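Quick illustration for those who missed Monday's session on complexes.
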Amino acid sequence: MPTFAAVEDAELEPSACWCCEAVDTPERMVHLGNHPEVAMCLGCARWAAKEAWEIEDLGRTGLVVRARDRFRAMRRGVVDRGWHRHRVFGGPLRWIGKRLP
Ligand SMILES: [Zn+2]
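Prediction with zinc ion bound:
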């Protein structure tokens, strides 16, 4: 079992995302509270938060929940068509996507 000092030493090294394996400095990674050795890049952490929000919304109703579902459906439509990679519109679409549910 690693000691606390070993975990601290490991945090000084660039670490890989446990989801997509992207490598970044530990300060730019999200670490799980009880398992700091588990790191996620910011993109995967943002994705996980949106997934959690969507799961929470499954048990909710209301106008705001329906609006978030519509935004999610629009995002899926954009990604399915590959518009988020468009040379001109891709950047703005990705910017909007990061700020919507
Ligand atoms: Zn990642």
